[in-house]
Amino acid sequence: MLNLIQADIYRVLHSTTIKILLTMTTVFSFILFGGMYLVENGTINQDLTNIIFLASDMNMMTLIGAVLAIHLVSAEFESRNMHHLITSGFSRIHIVISKMVAYCLLFTLVISPYFIGGVITILFNLDVNANTQLAGIMLMLQEHPAISTTHALLLLAVIALVYIAQLSTTVLFAFMFKKASLVIPLFYVISMTSGQISLYKEHLATIADMLRITPFASDFILIGVATTNDTLLAATVTSFLYIIAITALACLYFRKRDIQ
């Protein structure tokens, strides 16, 4: 299985897709952090905050994560490489697990510019402000002067894990649907719906409680300075268990799927 993971990572790292995705996150993270810094210092008009929000990690993760899953999994079906792996003697369970591990590692690489920018902001104690609805890294960074550097870095790590767990859903979708074009809109709907539920959780208490067993829970989406250690622990445990559950579901589905 280690050979499968290494092969997937090698193939993706040498592809044009990963270069484009990494370039996108680098450029947009620069726009995000640079824009937040300039808004806080009054250098640019606050009316431009909508553009900054479009470059935020919350907005970019859905697209980038889904495209990566399509490239890593769906493309293997289209090129018949999945068929070759099975006929070569690799078990379907090992294939799914290797894809999930490779995906988590590659996704971490792709989103790293956002977290590198976050670390720089924290270490240099830069004042940033998006002046708009906040979530993800933006929320934590705007509040970071109120906490220690160590705690801020811990929050970043948990946010990254929550993102990885959320986007692992796209790997399941890539194994489920023959049409890769379905992966992006389906996950986008899930992401947007969970985001809206987090904003109106008082009025949607039942649904919000159901989401608490997933990384889409409102408390996990809105991690910030006020987040308690118990919530951080819950987010960490829930994210790991969710990835395991999604991997198990992908294994069950893939075992029954016909490979042509």
Detail the topology: elements first, then pairings.
Blueprint: H1 2-13, H2 16-40, H3 49-54, H4 57-78, H5 81-87, H6 92-123, H7 136-143, H8 149-176, H9 183-199, H10 205-210, H11 218-221, H12 229-256
Provide a descriptive summary of the structure in words.
It is a single chain. This protein is mainly α and 260 residues long. It contains 12 helices and no strands. The chain is 75% helix and 0% strand. It has one domain. The protein starts with a helix and ends with a helix. The radius of gyration is 19 Å and the shape is globular. The chain crosses the membrane at residues 20-39, 51-73, 93-116, 153-176, 182-200, 232-254. Keywords: Membrane, Transmembrane, Transmembrane helix.
Order of helices and strands: HHHHHHHHHHHH
Bin the helical content.
over 70%
Query: How big a fraction of the residues is strand?
Result: under 5%
Calculate the terminal CA-CA distance, rounded to whole Å. 22 Å
Radius of gyration: 19 Å
Largest sheet: none
**How many strand elements?**
0
Low-confidence segments, ≥5 residues, pLDDT <50? Answer: none
What is the residue-mean pLDDT, rounded to a whole number? 80
Q: Which class do the helix and strand fractions yield?
A: mainly alpha
Essential attributes:
260 residues; mainly alpha; 0% strand; globular; transmembrane helix; membrane; transmembrane
